[in-house]
Amino acid sequence: MFATYKTLCTPKLVKLSAIACTAVLMSACASQKIATVDKRPVYVRGVPNYYIVKNGDTLSKIATTYGLDYRRVGALNGLDSNYTIYPGQRLILTSANNPTSYRPTTIRPVTVNQSSRPSNPTYYPPRQTNNSSTPLPMPNQVIVPTSSLSQGWLRPTTGNLLRPFNQQTGTLGMWFGGQAGANVVASQPGTVLYVGSDLPEYGKLVLIQHNSDYISAYAHLGSFAVQERQTVQAGQTIGTVGTDNNLNQPAVEFQIRYRGTPVNPASYLK
Predict the structure, then answer these.
(1) Which three-class secondary structure state does DSSP give residue 232?
(2) Measured between alpha carbons, how far is 185 from 241 in angstroms, rounded to an integer?
(3) CATH architecture for residues 38-115
């Protein structure tokens, strides 16, 4: 008798009994149509590193699609105050230091009312900003800067010029050589907008915003010496010369963008 009672009271059978009771209770609750709670984490759409602008796009539309702040995207890409973009333009959306994809959230309890649930949900597209009055600059458009920063920029390295700016061949900056690990400095004072390697064609990249018109880019670095949102001075070290490029030697690509458009750095350097 004792053995039979002990067998019936094994943890396994007790656990099975608890599960059975739970199932009965759940069935009863379901019949009463009480509030339901989904405690599973919800994941937002992953944000790509960059986006290629298409016909009809606006910065507001692109930012809304991925749940981003259009002002940060504009600053990250050196856009003008009208946030002008053109078809085919590559926009940086995120940085490796600020991932925005897959953020878990908690769902609050919601009472389900079957009779009031719409059969055909209505989709409301994000509101678009009308930039039709702003001319879209083409990639080969020549910009004549008028800002006070139109001259007096420092060379980012002390190395020799390896490749000049040539918009026709797709060289949108100047390539400077140097010893691997040598310092790369900020060409003008400003605020660091981006530090990362999200764009393979630029390798390790630093972007510095100097004012509302100008952004400088330092690509194919070997290492970083600054952080995003950091204030830097002209001549301050921001990284080192790297070897990750298609020149097969240590080099840094230096770009200056005026209102989002690449310009020839040779016209600005001291």
Answers:
(1) strand
(2) 10
(3) Roll (3.10)
